[in-house]
Structure formats: C-alpha cells, structure tokens
Amino acid sequence: MFKEADIRPNNREELWKEQQKDREWLFTRRDQWVTRFCPVCRQSHLSGMQTPCWIKFGFLYFKCTNCGCAYMSPCPSEELLAEFYKISKNAEYWNEEIYPNTKNARIENIELPRIGMMYNAVHSFYNTGECPSLHQGTLLEVGAGYGLFGEVIKKHINSNSMFKSYEALDPYKAENYKVTLEQFDYLENSIDVIVAFEVIEHIFDPCKFLEICGKLLKPDGLIILTCPNVEGFDIALLGDLSDTVDHEHINYFTIDSFNWLCDKRIDKRLGLKVREVTTPGQLDVELVQKKVKEVPVVRLHVNKNPLLKQILHDEKRAGNFQTFLRENNMSSSMMVVIQKEE
Prior knowledge:
Elements lengths: L3 H4 L5 H15 L5 E2 L15 E7 L2 E6 L5 E3 L2 E2 L1 H10 L1 H13 L1 H23 L11 E9 L2 H12 L3 E9 L19 E7 L8 H11 E12 L4 H6 L12 E2 L4 H9 L6 E7 L5 H11 L1 H8 L2 H7 L2 H13 L5 E8 L2
Parallel strand pairs: 6-7, 6-8, 8-9
Antiparallel strand pairs: 1-5, 2-3, 3-4, 4-10, 9-12, 11-12
Helix pairs in contact: 2-4, 5-6, 10-11
C-alpha cells in the first residue's frame, strides 16, 4: 500500500500559495458566479431540502437531503470555470512540479491499477469473454491532465491491448488535441470506452457531461469514471477539514448519485445504466491520521472516541480498517462503471 507522500508533496506551503492565487482570482470575479440547484436531483436550495454543510475559504457548500449529494453554491459560472482552468496557478504547479517529481510512483500506484480496473470492467460488461470487437475499438480519455494514463495505455496499445486507438481531451501541453468534450469531432456511437479520472467533481453540469459521453458511446460501450465519495470515511469524518473539500471541487457525489442521474435525469433514449460502483481508495486512514497530528480539534474528537482511537493509533488495525473501507464501499475514492444499453 502506497503513502500520500509518494504522490503529493509533504511541504504544502508553495502549493497553498498557488491555490490562494486561484481563489483570489475567482473572488475578484464574483459577479460571474451563479446560484446552483443540486447537480444530481435538481432540488433548489430554496426547497428546504438543502442544508448548508461547509464554508471553506469563503466558498459555501450545501448538502442535499433529497439525494445526499453536496455541492458548491453559488459557484463560478460554466463559462468562468472554463476560463479559470486555462490560467489556474494550482494546475500549473501540479503540472510543472508535482507530477514530474512523482511520475514513477503515480504510474505504479495509480495509473497501472486504473488500467487493471478498466480492463476488468471491460471484460465483465462489454462483450464478455474475449471482447473480440474491442481489438478494433477506441478508448477516449476526458480530462487527461498531465497525460500519465495516456503514456502508459499507449504502450499497452502498441503491444497487447484490447484497443486499437487512444484519444485524449484536455491534455496539458498537447497542442494537437481538442480542448473540450463538446468540440470533440467524433461521430455519435463511435467510441467503445470513455474514461474520466477525477474530472466530474469539477464540472458545472455533470448531467450534460454524461449525456455527451453517452451520445459518443457505441451501444454496449462503457463510461468509467472516478471521483470523491462524500460519504467515504475521511470526508465524512473530517468534513471541510478534508483536503478533498476545496475550491476546485464543486460536486461531491455519493455511491447512489449516478444511479439517480442515469435513472431520473439523463435522457432515457441514451440507455445509460450504472453497472458497478466501488471505492478502491487506499489513503483514507492515513489522511485522517495526519489530521489527528496536525489539527487539535480532530485529535480531540478522535481521542474521545475509543473505537477510532484504537484503529488510528495502531498501524496493523489501521491497515486492516483501510481494507474494510475499500471492500465495503466506504472509502472516499470512488469508481463508477456506466454502460450504454443496446
């Protein structure tokens, strides 16, 4: 099991400075913020079904008592978000400092496991068995970021892959790629598998995003995405003290959110159905342990709870508990497999 230090810097001071620049940029454009409904069930905060749950760095978040989703409101408009991600100092710092320095650890501990989980999902749900049609299939990654997944998957395609081609959107420093999903010029019903890792929590309208993906997919094709699980251990325990709660994450889903979206919100003609939801996270317990050391109020809370104290202060129990969280869909890191029915 890897550690947070393998993939993120221990010294967060420089990172925090860049994040603060981004927050200041957003706040100077507060006139371009908009009030949002729940991104999953569309309930308004005026309905009485929305409860303010966090205020962090001046951003307000609501918890929907109707579907369980949490979300930022008001938040930057869709147009402002598009502009923001082009100039984000935080994104620049990650791409120039953190990703290059943690590349090997990220490939080993994040990208290779993602590829394994993707292949498992394809074998389980898409033309089960030998997946004959996928040997000529197309894999699309949305939100490719620094491009580590693409770097690894291209080697698989060149050797022994079930895909013939790989396409990417939004890759950092990749001039030959399209900028947005809406501008992607593939025909409808032309993509076999779409992956979006840690993307949908940033998107203003998750329903529209999934509908666009659904139109691109071939019948039987898959959307495989990852995102935070707001009901997972470290977010549920730490609340706004969790580093997952930040100005870039405007949506916080539950393990039931995507069933709600597919069954009640998305155009029924697309035939999108959730096939699997898992929480493969490995860092929940370590993240809480670090907050116990760093934040007095968290330390006080844990020390008052005999069960949490026993788990978090014993490394063997902590490791076993992380396995328990992962196997029982209680980790804060979630993976969802959605299929387009024929």
